[in-house]
Design goal:
By secondary structure, the protein is α+β, with helices and mostly antiparallel strands. It folds into two domains: 4-105, Helix Hairpins (Orthogonal Bundle); 121-424, Bira Bifunctional Protein, Domain 2 (BirA Bifunctional Protein, domain 2), CATH 3.30.930.10. The protein has 13 helices and 17 strands. The protein has an eight-stranded mixed sheet with strand order 1-10-11-12-15-9-8-4. Helix 3 (27-65) runs antiparallel to helix 4 (69-105).
């Protein structure tokens, strides 16, 4: 959430952010400022009425003590009218504040100056590419056929039991999932993250705190009876862990990691994008979250990016780093990188991680603050997160890039201690 002073003092920057991110109409800024003026005017009038009421109350007391009951009664009539006016003004201020809160939640984060301006994924900037795509002396098989051949994943029975995009993992497919879980968590712990097992359902305040609400309401599943949301990513519960808290400066930075299943509607997905494991409604992921001092957040972003990339290096997967343009970076992010792995059979790049700096956007919503010094006024922290990593497309890339001419799949050496097998055949 943006600071209201930022909207008041820099309305043009906020309007530019709305246009750049294509998140609505810039007129929202003018409407918000108009509500803000009405609210402040009502507060001024309310304070004047309350001050007048206090003065009159004191005057009534004096007149009664002096025996001037008739004059006191006349003033009492005026105070009655003031009470009604104060009641009306309080309601007016409350309504304006509620409207203001709703409007502020609709404003996107302002992109960092280094973020390229663009509207579509075609305008994302390829920063660097790592590793060489594999070459084959045969036509590589897509992962969905490899998964069928080796009985690793059953999408049809998943669709029968739940619906499309809810797979069963079988045998070595299930063991590969468990291996990735432990592999990613062990790497995160070795790099200084505190492992966490977080709730898989959150309340609306938590979803609003990280910016899923109201921006991604249509992508989230909901349990109406309990007013819970199954998490779209463990970023939501982890970042809300310190919601409403004031931390000490010495507490920072904080680094957390967690494994969780994730649930997303992924409305509007179709075609090749949803084949096999490309796009699921339920999938597994290890998330990395950092809570840091504002002065250190962009160094932390570089470090977080290196943490996610190190896992891809260890898995020997070719990948590339993208700096996302304004129109493809998301509502809440100030700066965002995507990591994409090469899919040998599909001959395209698949996103497996997003690494983002939110600056104080989430922290303001959640009121996560720190004291620079013991008696100092609390200030907002900066929050960051990154996938470390998402499983489905990693599995897709592992199967496709490591397939052999006989149809078997050689797994990277880093996974052998976790899978208990080196080869799928």
């Amino acid at each position: 959430m943006l600071d209201l002073d930022t909207v008041r003092n820099h309305p043009r920057r906020v309007k530019e952010a709305i246009r750049a991110k294509d998140t609505g109409s810039p007129d929202l800024v003018d409407e918000l400022l108009e509500i803000d003026e009405e609210r402040r005017a009502a507060i001024t009038e309310l304070q004047e009425a309350q001050a007048r009421q206090n003065d009159l109350s004191q005057k009534i007391g004096t007149l009664k003590r002096e025996g001037n009951d008739e004059e006191a009664e006349a003033i009492i009539d005026e105070t009655s009218q003031l009470k009604e006016k104060i009641k009306r003004l309080k309601a007016q201020v409350q309504e304006a504040e509620e409207q203001q809160d709703e409007y502020v939640l609709e404003l996107p984060n302002i992109p960092h100056p280094s973020v390229p301006v663009g509207k579509t994924e075609d305008e994302n900037e390829v920063v660097e590419t790592f590793g060489d795509p594999p070459s084959f002396d045969f036509d590589p098989t897509p992962h969905w056929d490899l998964a069928d051949r080796h009985d690793l994943v059953d999408l049809e029975r998943g669709a029968k039991v739940t619906g499309s995009g809810f797979p069963f993992y079988l045998g070595r497919g299930a063991r590969l999932q468990r291996a990735l879980l432990n592999f990613f968590l062990d790497r995160a712990r070795d790099r200084g993250y505190t492992e966490m097992q977080a709730p898989l359902f959150v309340n609306p305040d938590s979803a609003e705190g990280t910016g899923q609400l109201p921006d991604k309401d249509d992508l989230m599943y909901k349990i109406p009876r309990d007013d819970f949301y199954p998490i779209p990513t463990s970023e939501v519960p982890i970042t809300n862990f310190h919601r409403g808290e004031i931390l000490e400066a010495d507490d920072l930075p904080l680094q957390y990691c967690a494994y969780s299943p994730c649930w997303r509607r992924e409305a509007g997905s179709y075609g090749a994008d949803v084949r096999g494991l490309n796009r699921l409604h339920e999938f597994d992921k290890v998330e990395l979250v950092r809570v840091v001092h504002p002065d250190n957040s962009y160094r932390a972003l570089d470090s977080l990016l290196a943490d996610a990339e190190s896992a891809l290096d260890a898995l020997e997967l070719p990948y590339r780093r993208l700096l996302m343009c304004t129109g493809d970076m998301g509502f809440t992010q100030a700066k965002k990188y995507d990591l994409e792995v090469w899919s040998a059979a599909q001959e395209r790049w698949l996103e497996v991680s997003s690494v983002s700096n939110f600056e104080d956007f989430q922290a303001r919503r959640m009121q996560i603050r720190y004291r620079p010094e013991p008696e100092a006024k609390p200030e907002l922290v900066h929050t960051l997160n990154g996938s470390g990593l998402a499983f489905p497309r990693i599995v897709a890339a592992l199967l496709e890039n490591n397939q052999q001419s006989d149809g078997s799949i050689e797994l990277p050496e880093a996974l052998h201690p976790y899978t208990g097998f080196e080869r799928i055949e």
